[in-house]
Protein 1
Amino acid sequence: MRTRNLAVVFAGICGYAERLGAQSWEQSQRMLRVHEALVDPVFRAFGGRRIKQIGGTLLFVFDSPTDAVLCAAALLERVARYDAEVPEAERLDIRAGIHLGEVRLEKGDVFGEPVNIAARIEALAGPGEALFGEAVWLSMNRAEVRAEDRGERRLKGVPEAVRIFRLVESLRLLPDAGPLPDPAKLEESSEVLRHLREAYRAACRSLEEAWPYVPDRARVFVGAGLAAMVAVAAAFFALARLGALP
């Protein structure tokens, strides 16, 4: 098990649990597909690494706290444009919470107090808001964004109060993450393919973490194993597109 100092970002749908109770299964799955299609391109553009999906929330990590905050600004801007074009019932109302600190890396996942604090901060945010902890504000390039001090807050499970900042705007031109998704054209992934994709992502994260410690002689075999995994994933994807998977 290793540790690294990372910026942890939770990007979630406001009121996700309540919305599930008012939606059919098809509607909730479409909402999650739209969420993913809106979020993933932005995080890739800023070098974020996707860790996992927890219900209506996606967890990413960044090496740079500045990139994490700028990514949140770009995400909120992108989602606001999407929400302005769809009926009120289909709006996503994304929010984000960010914190910085030393996390434990294990089996492609991240653990530790910074993760818990980022989750608590995300829960404080309202629709279209990005909040982040003081550790982020002190470590980032503060000339890149404008933020307001929201004061200290007591967070559940955190022994000390955390000073919270609210992102007001980016002071830098943000990259274009591509066209907005069309819900009608987002294909529903099979359960098998979805789990395979998540397993593949976890394996890639684990390999990325372990690669510097892998002996040179072993790297050929590790690379061959990863290539085989890619081939299997491609085969499953092809079968899913042909409708051969449940």
Note: DSSP finds seven helices and eight strands in the chain.
Protein 2
Amino acid sequence: MSFSPILIIPGEKKSIFFEIFFKSLKSKFFKSPLILICDKKSLNKEVKKYKFNKHIEQVELNEIYSKKFYKKKIYVIHVKDQNSNIYIHNCFKIAFELIKKGLTRKMINGPINKTKTLNKKYLGMTEFIAKHFKQNKFAMLIYNKKLSVCPVTTHLPIKLVAKKITKKEIKEKITLVNDFYKKYLGFKPRIAVIGLNPHCESILKFNEDNKIIYPTIRSLKNKINVKGPFPADTIFLKNNRKKFDTIIGMYHDQVLTPIKTIFEYDAINITMGLPFLRVTPDHGPNEKMVGKNISNPISLIRSLEFLDKK
């Protein structure tokens, strides 16, 4: 019996990805076939280094659409190793083509060095992937089944955040969260929205919390279970956060700092608004840990678990 595979782009050549990948497969059973898109020689070196004993079958691109993929199996599409940026872009190019041609709707990418790979053309990988699929409405969801967060703005310098806080952007993110939960998780989420200013107050005449955020929430209340704005310094207290499934913040670290403090590596990064499911472990390449074999694989395990059920 053939199963829908999960495409996996390991990402940076110098990263902890293969360490946590092999640890994940040793600790957990996944029914979905896994297709690695990477350099075969580099993969073989990692297999030997971590003493991974499962067979990995090479698949040629010209045969992939007629190929039957079986559960518990691992496959690899060879991508020639070359300049790091070109190599990573070629891996994504192949994955995007396979998705567009209907091979699968599930993809994981390992940690990427955004500064080198994106060359300041995009704020992050979320924006890079969304742009490639011509999606204008998209958002980052840092997901844990107990609580998730979504920033309205992502990797944006703080001094630029206030200019990007608009009714349109906030409404878009609230709607994306609501639609994603209903489509992929099967229920209508309880959503909290955080204010921009400390305590949702401002000494300035124009207060974004009163003039932009609150009216947007009020306009959606009859359609979506959303409340706020709430002060950022108290919404993540235990008795407050348990009332919600997702907390939407105005900028990246406003919500990613508390969610990582609460769950550490037990969360995954999902891009909402794409025509497929793209998930990535919620951490970077972590070059300082490469080769030490002490990295925590839980975020990649959760990524594989999430897609394995879809």
Note: The first helix runs from residue 17 to 27.
Protein 3
Amino acid sequence: MKVKICGLSTAEQVKTSINFGANFCGFILNYPKSHRYIQFEKAKELTNIEKKNSKYVAVLVEPKNDELEKFSKLNIDYFQIYGKYNSETIFNIKSKFNKKIIVAIQVKNEKDILNYKEFENVADIILWDSSGLEHSIEWNYNWIKSVPKSITKMIAGNVNIDKLEKISKLADIVDVSGALETNKVKDIYKIKNFLNKLNKINNEN
């Protein structure tokens, strides 16, 4: 299972994530309500750090066209998009800006899982997340068992180190943020610990 560390805001956090094997590093770029939000200049600085084997992800909530234009100039690989879109809009964003796309589906109940069907042919990754945006809320991860293996599945929403074993049997990628913070700031020790645990699980499987 791969891992995305989301809501990074300092060079030390980014370098630690990369050096300890994070596959994706996520940056909150247009959602100031989140305490993880960073300004454009900071995003520019962080995405210029050598990413080695990691991929950089711009996390965007209902982005406007001029925002997509602006963020597409950063050294990023993926747009992770929240909001009410259809497959045609996502396809157009993907084509125009030449970025891979993570479509985020917010889950309140089991039938929300099926919303992936709209995007299965245009998204590179489908993320099932809680309905809380900046607030991490738990949902029943088992609901995604019905999703076919052909879909690259990412899980977020109140993920922590104790749930890794379970999530590794359900998803291709785990997306973690709040569990790696102390007083709303990413904790370098927690990042290392989480990534070491994931590597251990991957080596055992």
Note: The longest strand covers residues 100-107.
